[in-house]
Design goal:
heterotrimer; A: mainly alpha; two-stranded antiparallel ribbon; 13 helices; 2 strands; globular; C: alpha/beta; Rossmann fold
Chain lengths: ~270, ~350, ~240
């Protein structure tokens, strides 16, 4: 992805995260916990599980539709980060060749099954992670993490990082544009120039940090970043969490999908 | 490269998370005791800097492909190990959340791979002793190269181990290593050059900067050689044990699975001709309406050492596939329904 | 409240790299005065402003704010009285949301939650920024950021307000809003700016800094119409005076 495209991309996800839907207003802690439970359950499925993973798509679908997040947007991002998992997983069909089924006359090897499993797990985990931010806003997640026990120092790092990402990306964009405008073709984009650009950005960053520090001091900063009490957990939040836990338990330990299929088979006969 | 959730098992993921949280807690504590307030905004903004820097790419001479900075080493050199670890952790967290680069469960692994090694191993044991306060540019380049390569090799090796121990990939140890290490060697060399380049630039443009930052950060990690040796020995033992466990329960992946499935001897390994395959298929795998495999036992909750490879049958039985199609259809209907409902009300 | 006197007596300041930015600054500002600080780039304006709340301490000479002499020990206290608004709002809005930024100061003052909320509400109201309350700073326009930066300082209810190039990146309307706001702020004000028309509009007194020294000190109308003196200090007549 080109630099500009990446920049506007993070901006879009960021804007979506400040939406005003029911999902956005759920308590951030509950959403973080629910997502982590979801992820944990998905990857706890064994290597060759494919069919039982399908119902789990309900979670990202519900989040995306109720949270008014464009589905295509999420799909594109899932595809974008897939290379590594695919790269590793694609070896499976070649290395694990015991045939386990024949579908419409085509033999399916165990490796293909496990590859599919990886793909499904990948789609589920990545979309769940993206949708967490898309429906919660980054500061929301950070505050949730703080209240869930992460060190406050680390959380304030995250918040600063987030606050200045856009500022710094803009600055980096400016510097890169200046470079690109003056290097006709790829000649100028070499490592030496790169190091110098990064060095410039670095120095400007440190200077900025100094100015921020002064601004903080000027408003009475004495070492601790203060924070106000945030929202409380409501009944809706707890209901959401309960529903999630039940859903995960049921679909993890019972072969619902097969049940439905078997039932349909029975009907067809 | 980042570790992904889909390749991870709960056991490995949790372990690495625990490790990263522990180190993070340690780093926070050390910082809290000795921190100069100046560092607080600086760390945050440097995290954003790493992010922005990672987005600027450059062409790798000779290959035409592009590469970019990782950041662990330069952070450790500038901020010291504790602050650098926290900053790397924050950068990786943002990457995981905003870009789904490396999953949320795999975040523990990634923070470990890309944070722990450069900050707490390579920097104190390699860079600092060898380069320290040296002003000699040649020396800085050399040590940066070695450090960056070492850190990235360790990171890449960890990814291999984590994937293997999660058991979702079929790649053998050797094959995987061959895939990962050389690439990361190249990336490490580049990172080393860039790191040295930044230090050089900053020293020439704003010499007082590095000194003033060094002055405001806490004293480095105090390491005793004995502890280091003990750690390495422990690591070696664990690695050795893990590898041998792995080898013993999955002696020969292919043979073993065939045995399980067909209940017979081996299908000829190298013979991928149609005949023997079909023969085997005919007996066990015919796609008949209500024919499924005999279940090999309840699937375990976790992918672990228990030598059961179940779920293969369940994954491909007729009922399963039909059910999957129905469920998928339902989900899409629900989604579309909500969408249009919202659309009408909006 | 007679103790809001700002006094700089023989103030010298040298940066670590040797640059002598201030070479004997002397002036006295009394309560409620509105003073403009003008001078060429590098004349020492920003350095001077940073002495107002102890971000920088004089190498020699004394700075007195209210009845407190500026020292390392007293600067924490002085920061409750003096609110400085720096040039770049991005450097001053460092919290995740506007509300957090405006609340930062009052929280550091140790006020309780209800009081903090009230102050935030009032401060944002004064700059017409109430609807920005829950937005992250990077979603704001330049003018909005400036307004919020000002709100974040006035939420601390300082007795003295110091501003460094407040109109630098503002569009004409935002600039006009700023001028209107400044005119309504009744406490002591010190505004360092190149925007001489703004100074003419808002400040009745003007100090010209050149080469780290006070070159002129008097009523703005007088000083800012003295073309020779202005040009000697790399300045010009305010635009509004150039046409008439």
């Amino acid at each position: 992805m080109t630099f500009d495209a990446q920049y506007f991309d993070i901006g879009r996800l960021d804007r979506l995260s400040y939406g005003d839907t029911f999902v956005h207003h759920l308590d951030a802690r509950v959403k973080v916990i629910a997502t982590m439970l979801f992820l944990f359950t998905v990857i706890s499925f064994p290597k060759y599980e494919v069919v039982a993973l399908v119902p789990f798509f309900l979670f990202p679908v519900l989040l995306a539709t109720l949270g008014e997040i464009p589905v295509l947007f999420i799909l594109k991002k899932v595809l974008l980060v897939s290379p590594f998992a695919i790269l590793i997983g694609v070896f499976n069909p070649f290395l694990d060749t015991g045939t386990v089924a024949v579908i419409a006359g085509i033999p399916i090897s165990a490796g293909v099954v496990s590859f599919f499993s990886i793909l499904l797990k990948f789609a589920l985990t990545v979309s769940a992670a993206l949708l967490l931010i898309a429906t919660t806003s980054f500061p929301g997640v950070c505050h949730a993490l703080r209240r869930l026990g992460l060190p406050p120092l680390f959380v304030s790092q995250l918040l600063f990082l987030y606050r200045y990402i856009f500022v710094l990306m803009e600055e980096a964009m400016r510097i890169t544009r200046a470079r690109d405008m003056r290097s006709f073709g790829t000649r100028g984009a070499g490592i030496k120039v790169f190091a110098r650009l990064i060095g410039t950005l670095f120095v400007r960053t440190v200077d900025r940090a100094e100015r921020i520090y002064y601004a903080m001091l000027s408003r009475g900063f004495q070492g601790d970043i203060p924070s106000l009490k945030r929202a409380r957990i409501e009944v809706t939040d707890l209901a959401y969490l309960a529903a999630m836990v039940m859903f995960l338990a049921v679909f993890r330990f019972f072969r619902i999908t097969e049940g439905i299929g078997g039932f349909a088979q029975g009907l067809l006969r | 490269m980042h570790m992904a959730d889909a390749l991870l098992s709960p056991a490995v993921g949790t372990t690495l998370w625990a490790g990263s949280v522990a180190v993070g807690g340690y780093a926070s504590k050390r910082l809290k005791r000795q921190i100069d307030d100046r560092l607080i905004p600086l760390m945050g903004v440097l995290g954003a800097f790493i992010f922005a820097a990672q987005m600027i790419n450059f062409t790798i001479p000779g290959t035409g492909s592009s590469g970019h900075l990782g950041g662990g080493m330069i952070l450790a050199i500038i901020l010291g190990p504790h602050a650098a670890f926290l900053v790397m952790a924050s950068v990786l967290t943002v990457q995981a959340l905003f870009f789904a680069d490396g999953g949320l469960l795999a975040l523990g692994c990634n923070i470990w791979n890309l944070g722990f090694y450069p900050c707490y191993l390579v920097y104190p044991l390699l860079y600092k002793p060898l380069a320290g306060e040296s002003q000699n540019p040649g020396r800085i380049v050399a040590v940066s190269l070695v450090s960056a390569v070492a850190a990235l090799q360790l990171g890449a090796f960890s990814v291999v181990m984590e994937t293997l121990m999660s058991g979702k990939s079929e790649l053998s140890f050797g094959a995987f290593l061959l895939l990962m290490q050389p690439i990361h060697l190249a990336i490490g060399i580049i990172e080393g050059f860039v790191t040295a380049g930044i230090i050089h630039y900053v020293r020439s443009a704003r010499p007082e900067l590095l000194e003033s930052m060094a002055a405001s950060r806490p004293l480095g990690v105090s390491i005793s050689l004995r502890k280091v040796m003990a750690t390495f020995v422990a690591l070696a033992v664990i690695t050795g044990a893990a590898l041998s466990w792995f080898a013993s329960t999955h002696p020969d992946g292919l043979e073993w699975s065939i045995e399980k499935i067909t209940g017979k001897g081996e299908l000829p390994e190298q013979d991928h001709g149609i005949a023997p395959v079909l023969r085997g298929i005919q007996e066990r795998t015919a796609f008949l309406p209500d024919y499924g495999f005999k279940p090999a036992g309840n699937e375990p909750k976790k992918e672990n050492a228990a030598p059961a490879w179940p779920g293969i049958e369940a994954g491909t039985s007729a009922a399963g596939i039909i059910g999957a199609a129905i469920v998928l259809g339902l989900i899409l209907l629900i989604g579309a329904g909500i969408r249009s409902f919202r659309g009408r009300n909006a | 409240m007679s103790h809001h006197i700002i006094e700089f007596k023989d103030v010298f300041f040298r940066y670590p790299d040797g640059t002598e930015a201030l070479r004997g600054i002397y002036f006295r500002i009394t309560h409620g005065e509105s003073v403009g600080i003008v001078g060429a780039n590098g004349s020492g304006k920003s350095t001077l402003l940073q002495h107002m709340n102890g971000c920088l301490l004089p190498t020699s000479g004394t700075v007195t704010i209210g009845d407190l002499p500026l020292t390392r020990k007293t600067r924490q206290e002085i920061r409750r009285k003096v609110g400085i608004i720096f040039q770049n709002p991005d450097d001053q809005l460092f919290m995740p949301t506007v509300f957090d930024d405006v609340a930062f100061g009052p929280l550091n003052l140790g006020l309780d939650e209800a009081c903090v909320r009230e102050r935030v509400h009032r401060a944002l109201g004064m700059v017409h920024g109430l609807d920005l309350r829950d937005k992250p700073p990077h979603h704001l326009s330049g003018g909005q950021k400036s307004s919020v930066a000002i709100a974040s300082v006035i939420a601390m209810e300082p007795d003295i307000l110091a501003l460094d190039e407040p109109a630098a990146n503002l569009d004409p309307r935002s600039r006009r809003s700023l001028i209107t706001f400044l005119k309504t702020f009744k406490h002591s004000k010190m505004i360092a700016s190149h925007d001489l028309d703004l100074i003419l509009d808002v400040c009745e007194r003007c100090i010209v800094i050149g080469d780290g020294r006070v070159v002129a000190d008097g009523p703005s109308a007088e000083i800012l119409s003295n073309r020779t003196m202005l040009e000697e200090n790399s300045l010009e007549l305010p635009l509004s005076l150039q046409r008439g």
